Amino acid sequence: MEAVPQRAIAHTPSLLYVARTEREQKLTAINFRFDLFAEIWMERYNELKAYRKHHGDCLVPHTFASNPQLGIWVGEQRYNSRTFKERRACAMTPERLALLEKLDFVWFVPDVIWNERYGELEEHVRFNGRGSLPTLKDNTRLRHWVANQQKLHRKIMNGEENALTEDRIRKLNKLGHLL
Predict the structure, then answer these.
(1) CA 84 to CA 101: how far, in whole Å?
(2) What is the pLDDT of residues 3-52, one digit of tens each?
(3) What angle do CA 161, 164, 169 make, to 5 degrees?
(4) For the chain, what is the radius of gyration of the CA atoms?
(5) Which of 60, 128, 141, 177 lies in the 20 to 30 Å Cα band around 66?
């Protein structure tokens, strides 16, 4: 049998396909992991599902003591979603976005925190009257949050831009806290 020159093998698609298929079969036989990154992503996704089931949300702290990798991974998903939306190369895919959306994944945590504090302020106003402030003794966190919103509003009044939107100003004014 005559030997086939190396150049002929390298440029013959059918021979390349056969060789690749044989290699893949051998690797599969020894349980080789072809896409380790995809497996790790799904592993973290399943951990996030468990977290959500236990905690009721996907707000995994960045420094989550019982699973530090999950906290880091969640932050990476937020970053990758922004990168993906900017049409830059990243590990995010439309399928992954859809999976995270199914879990009501929070893409921008500051909005959630603002809404939580606003809800606390609404509750406080309901019991204590419009424009009333919580005492430092009763609710230090809410008192500081209200003071920060007022500070942001003063900056807007002085022409500085910041995160306090018109909608947020309207809501806070409704409760008597920015007038």
Answers:
(1) 15
(2) 655 554 455 556 566 667 777 777 678 776 667 788 999 999 999 999 99
(3) 120
(4) 27
(5) 141
First to last CA, the chain: 94
Virtual torsion, Cα 58, 122, 139, 157, nearest 10 deg: 100
Report field, pTM of the whole predicted structure over 0.70: no
| Interatomic CA distance for residues 94 and 41, integer angstroms | 14
Q: Is the dihedral of CA 88, 91, 93, 97 positive or negative?
A: negative
Task: List, as one string, the DSSP characters of 53-103.
Answer: HHHSS----TT-TT-HHHHHHHHHHHHHHHHHHTT---S--HHHHHHHHHT
E strand or H helix that includes residue 128: helix 109-128
pLDDT in tens, 136-151: 788 899 999 999 999 9
The percent of residues above 70 in pLDDT, for the chain, comes to 85
Give SS3 for 153. Answer: helix
The SS3 assignment for 34 reads coil
